[in-house]
Design goal:
5-stranded parallel beta sheet; 172 residues; single chain; two-stranded parallel sheet; alpha/beta; 41% helix
């Protein structure tokens, strides 16, 4: 937002930009800036080929794969799961993967979602997010870093986000 520019001008000697458009924008507003690239461009990538990934998780090779990404934090996942499973129930002839970061199952009791996941034929894969995105035909993702990861992996997605009632109230 342009309203932040005066504060940035006062606090920053030289801004390192992670998106290409930022350098020109900030320079045009009197802030020294250099585009250095997004750090994820050097990190994001699948571990497995599509065939290896499909074999590893016993996925049917002929069906389109939709990866569901409800978030990385337990609170986000709990908030998003009902909407994600509802949306998934209306989809037909797709393989559906719920992708969560490694360790989420230990921090979050996913058993409350066992029946909705089963009812919507959603397979849960933990700790292989980049592979689940890279090998998907499309993704449904909570807004956040994962949207950049999907772009870098070349996977189209629809983004969503549901805030807590308190955050909604504060934002209003």
């Amino acid at each position: 937002r342009k309203g932040r520019l005066p504060a940035i001008r006062r606090a920053v000697n030289h801004l390192l930009c992670i998106f290409p458009f930022e350098e020109e924008f900030f320079r045009n507003h009197g802030i020294e800036a250099t585009y250095i690239g997004h750090p994820l461009t050097r990190l994001v990538g699948p571990k497995f080929t599509r065939d290896e990934f499909f074999r590893r998780h016993q996925l049917p090779p002929g069906r389109p794969l939709l990866t569901l990404l409800p978030g990385s934090r337990p609170g986000e996942i709990v908030r998003h799961m009902p909407a994600v499973t509802d949306a998934a129930r209306s989809l037909r002839d797709l393989t559906l993967i719920l992708a969560t970061p490694k360790g989420v199952a230990a921090r979050l009791d996913l058993t409350t979602f066992t029946e909705p996941l089963r009812a919507a034929s959603i397979q849960h894969i933990e700790g292989e997010t980049w592979d689940t995105i890279a090998h998907a035909d499309a993704a449904l993702a909570a807004s956040g870093t994962v949207t950049i990861e999907a772009a870098l992996l070349g996977t189209p997605l629809a983004a969503f986000y549901k805030v807590s009632p308190w955050s909604w109230w504060m934002g209003r």
